[in-house]
């Protein structure tokens, strides 16, 4: 019948494919769903056992002190040799991930115990990690970076067109224009500051930074006009991402608008810190109390967002595990086939965190340092971290223990992530077993469309499952 013919063709095609490599056994000699393969090595046949079974014919159930794994929090279990039995209370020991301890790695160590937060930062203990809350102007994972660049009112990096105001005062029959573009710290001359118009009941001056920035402080200064000191004694600050919706600055945990203490004479500078820092594109200074007139010279203090970015706000999984990143977006230098069998090909499309199955990771054809796996994110994203994981190839624990990361915007010209201190390629510490997640952060983060992981050191074979962390930006 037609059905038989189709079956025959399918069987024939299957055999053709297998002739090139290993072949399945005519009679399956393997128990418990094991796959039987001939033509591999010395043995007449080999059984590839389903999870939980072992032995030459998969007739042994893998049970033991480590099966199932009694260790918590991704700890790995190790059976102890019989000679050491008796001096410990069990037949196994748990090797814990950093940040965990105890017989079963069940105790979450206090990661704040070593006081990782510098410059007065306060520490919060997390699962196998910590987070620092940094006082302004410090930023970074450990509050080790100072966000204190002068943003260019005095220096001129902020140009006239970026500065605007609610109104302008014209002095001496309209001949002197005290425009917002003059509001630059230490500006000299007879007309050397911004002053709002006398009738303006709600004055403000605004700087458009042209992109989102982190602002950690403001320096203000008054001026003297016709021998009289004019200055802003108290002011509020508002900020906006889009120039339409503004929020007035409030101190941490406060519901009322923060009123900053301003100047007290025509010439001294007064520095106020924003703690927490303001992240915004538009910043508006709103005078509340002025002496004689609302007159201002100023400078903004802060830094680029992408350089010292706080990864906490940008560490979403980008879609390896969730499959938001499609198979077509993944590629690699080469792929490995266990025993040369197509069915057991370790495609880059398998390099998804926590992927299950017999072949559940990427593995390249050769184990050397010219292999790579690539993710095309399809548009430029901000990358803040990576999670890596190894896998088992039919029982053998395999993982990448050290790797480099490279990135590109066109897929042709590549940069390797550098160690900030030494300037050399950064070597990321990878996995120590086949299953635990190892997270590394990119500090500073980088922007890229293409990301490559370059295995540098490995255990058994280069074998990788992974997730990228970051956000659109
Ligand atoms: C498993 O199979 C082998 C040979 O195929 C046999 O010698 C052994 O006794 C079997 N073991 C069990 C537990 O069935
Ligand atoms: C402005 O400040 C300078 C320097 O402190 C001072 O010498 C001067 O008298 C001040 N002028 C006025 C009008 O207050
Ligand atoms: C890696 O292995 C492949 C295949 O053996 C070889 O062609 C290539 O030159 C090797 N690269 C390095 C850097 O050793």
From TrEMBL:
Keyword terms of this UniProt record: Disulfide bond, EGF-like domain, Signal
Domain EGF-like: 21-59, 62-106, 108-144
Record CDD domains: EGF_CA, FA58C
Full protein name: Lactadherin-like
Annotated disulfide bonds: 30-47, 49-58, 96-105, 134-143
Example of a GO cellular component annotation carried by this entry: plasma membrane
Domain of life: Eukaryota
Domain F5/8 type C: 147-303, 314-471
One GO molecular-function entry: signaling receptor activity
Organism: Salarias fasciatus
Pfam families to which the protein is assigned, alphabetical: EGF (PF00008), F5_F8_type_C (PF00754)
Range of residues in the leader sequence: 1-22
């Amino acid at each position: 019948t037609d059905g038989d013919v189709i079956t025959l063709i399918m069987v024939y095609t299957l055999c053709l494919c297998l002739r090139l490599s290993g072949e399945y056994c005519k009679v399956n000699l393997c128990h418990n769903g094991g796959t039987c393969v001939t033509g591999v090595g010395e043995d007449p046949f080999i059984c590839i056992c389903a999870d939980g079974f072992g032995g030459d014919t998969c007739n042994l159930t893998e049970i033991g002190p480590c099966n199932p794994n009694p260790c918590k929090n991704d700890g790995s279990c190790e059976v102890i040799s019989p000679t050491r039995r008796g001096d410990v209370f069990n037949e196994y020991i748990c090797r814990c991930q950093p940040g965990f301890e105890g017989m079963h790695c069940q105790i979450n160590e206090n990661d704040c115990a070593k006081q990782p937060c510098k410059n007065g930062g306060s520490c919060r203990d997390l699962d196998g990690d910590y987070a620092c809350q940094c006082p302004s102007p410090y930023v970074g994972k450990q509050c080790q970076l100072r966000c204190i660049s002068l943003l260019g009112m005095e220096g001129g990096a902020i140009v006239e067109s970026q500065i605007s105001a609610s109104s302008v005062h014209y002095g001496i029959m309209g001949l002197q224009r005290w425009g917002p573009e003059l509001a630059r710290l230490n500006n000299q001359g007879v007309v050397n500051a911004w002053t709002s118009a006398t009738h303006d009941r709600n004055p403000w001056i605004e700087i458009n930074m042209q992109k989102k920035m982190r602002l950690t402080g403001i320096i203000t200064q008054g001026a003297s006009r016709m021998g009289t000191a004019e200055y802003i004694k108290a002011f509020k600050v508002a900020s906006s991402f889009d120039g339409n919706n503004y929020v007035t600055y409030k101190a941490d945990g406060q519901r009322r608008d923060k009123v900053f203490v301003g100047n007290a004479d025509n010439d001294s500078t007064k520095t106020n810190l924003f703690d927490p820092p303001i992240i915004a594109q538009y910043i508006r200074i709103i005078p509340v109390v002025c002496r004689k007139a609302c007159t201002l010279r100023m400078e903004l203090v802060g830094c680029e967002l992408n350089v010292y970015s706080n990864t906490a706000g940008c560490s979403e999984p980008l879609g390896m595990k969730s499959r938001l990143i499609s198979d077509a977006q993944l590629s690699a230098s080469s792929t490995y086939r266990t025993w040369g069998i197509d069915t057991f090909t370790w495609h880059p499309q398998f390099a998804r965190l926590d992927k299950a199955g017999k072949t559940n990771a990427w593995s390249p054809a050769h184990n050397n340092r010219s292999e790579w796996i690539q993710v095309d994110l399809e548009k430029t994203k901000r990358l803040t971290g990576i999670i890596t994981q190894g896998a088992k190839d039919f029982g053998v624990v395999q993982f990448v223990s050290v790797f480099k990361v490279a990135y590109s915007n066109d897929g042709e010209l590549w940069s390797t992530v550098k160690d900030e201190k030494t300037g050399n390629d950064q070597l990321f510490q990878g996995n120590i077993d086949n299953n635990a997640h190892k997270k590394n952060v990119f500090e500073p983060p980088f922007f890229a469309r293409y990301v490559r992981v370059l295995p540098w050191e490995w255990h058994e074979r280069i074998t990788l499952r992974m997730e990228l962390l970051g956000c659109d930006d």
